[in-house]
Amino acid sequence: MNFKEIFDKYHNIAVYGMSSNPLKAAYSVPSFMQKQGYNIIPINPQADEINGLKVYKKLEDIPDKIEILNVFRPSDEALNVVKEAVERRKNQGDISLIWLQEGIINEEAHKLANENGIDFVQNLCMYKAYISI
User: Fold this and answer.
1) SS3 state of residue 25
2) Which of 15, 35, 39, 110 has the fewest CB atoms within 10 Å around its CB?
3) Largest pairwise CA distance in the chain
């Protein structure tokens, strides 16, 4: 699936590690995607609201359907994030794609996602991919 197909097909993006700091990519990238019409669902245990959006403490707390899980966490935390996503997919049937932002790489997480039918992108900024199409 190419980026145009991804962005045309999916509209609900949960952002694992969304920041409340407007100077961080973990704030600006999801905010940009929201301005493009995507439904952004922040996940951050330290905040209640970011950019006017209700923030969830954990992935499992989100009642809405998640299509893309966009991850802003260090590479060494990516495997645990993917384990949570796999568990949610088994229980809820959602999360079609896990997207690790630029600089985040974890091959073990990639393998686990693929073994569980979840598409996977890593080490790529969603904003850069979106503006490239």
Assistant:
1) helix
2) 35
3) 36
Of the candidates 54, 132, 68, the one whose C-alpha atom is nearest the C-alpha of residue 100 is 68
CB 51 within 8 A of CB 29: no
Query: Where in the sequence is the domain holding 60, given as residue range(s)?
Result: 3-131
Count: domains in the chain:
1
Residue 46 C-beta-side C-alpha neighbours within 13 Å: 6
Q: Mean pLDDT over all residues of the chain?
A: 97
What CATH number corresponds to the domain at position 44? Answer: 3.40.50.720
Instruction: Give yes or no for a contact between 14 and 118, defined as CB atoms under 8 angstroms apart.
Output: no
Give the CB-side neighbour count of residue 39, counting CA atoms within 13 A.
Answer: 10
**What pLDDT digit, counting tens, does each position of 7-65 carry?**
999 999 999 999 999 999 999 999 999 999 999 999 999 999 999 999 999 999 999 99
Joined together, the tokens standing for residue 25 give: 């990519």
| Verdict on whether the full-model pTM lies above 0.90 | yes
Q: Quick: pLDDT tens for 62-82.
A: 999 999 999 999 999 999 999
